[in-house]
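Dear Dr. L.,

I hope this message finds you well. Following up on our conversation about the binding site, I have prepared a predicted three-dimensional model of the protein together with S-adenosylmethionine. For your records, I am including the exact sequence and ligand specification that went into the calculation, followed by the structure tokens. Please feel free to forward this to your student if that is useful.
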Amino acid sequence: MRLKNVPGCRERIAESEYVVPEEELKERAGSWKSSFAGPGELHIEIGMGKGRFIHEMALLHPDINYIGIEKYSAVLLRAVQKMEEEPKENLKFIRMDAEIIAEVFGPGEVDRIYLNFSDPWPKDRHAKRRLPSREFLARYDRILRADGRIEFKTDNRVLFDWAVEQLPGSGWKADLITYDLHADAELVKDNVMTEYEEKFSSMGNPICKYVISRE
Ligand code: SAM
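The resulting structure of the complex is given below.
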């Protein structure tokens, strides 16, 4: 998701009490849980966009601490503005490219990772930038606790099939794969919709989801 540049958005992000300062990101590796008031698990969403999903998750699960990660300031600003209207003690934001995620979180300190409607990067030469790629799975392997899981949703069947093909030999196994999440009465009960999910499912696109963990 790219929004037009919003004048002053970088400065507003830098000043926001809800966004962790960029210069502190690597210093906090290994001690993120002490950044929150409560002692709960740490769940992160990578590529959160305007933050609809993570705001709702933080509201539904006050005992879990959440960090939303987004690359673009103009997009992140929307999540920050929502936080200003509805502050949540258990939610923080980071503006960064997730390529450096293994330097920002310590070994095993993240309890769950959400990837929602990740950018498809359709050109082969950009495959490493796809968030469910093997390159990213190796980064997640360093920061996710041993029995932690990754949940990935998308309506992009080509990206989803490719993501599933990444798994054999990667050290990860699928605990759940569905090609039509919204048609599954059990799964849909706890499903929190993202902005893109709302948009694309209302157009009739089936939503694919996997949950993976270590083999
Ligand atoms: N997760 C939201 C949803 O489902 O509505 C937004 C989906 S949008 C298609 C993907 C978002 O991921 C964009 O806002 C993009 O800037 C962000 N993103 C893509 N690659 C990223 C990266 N390497 N690090 C951080 N954010 C990234």
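In brief: The CA atoms of residues 155 and 200 lie 7 Å apart.

With kind regards,
A. P.
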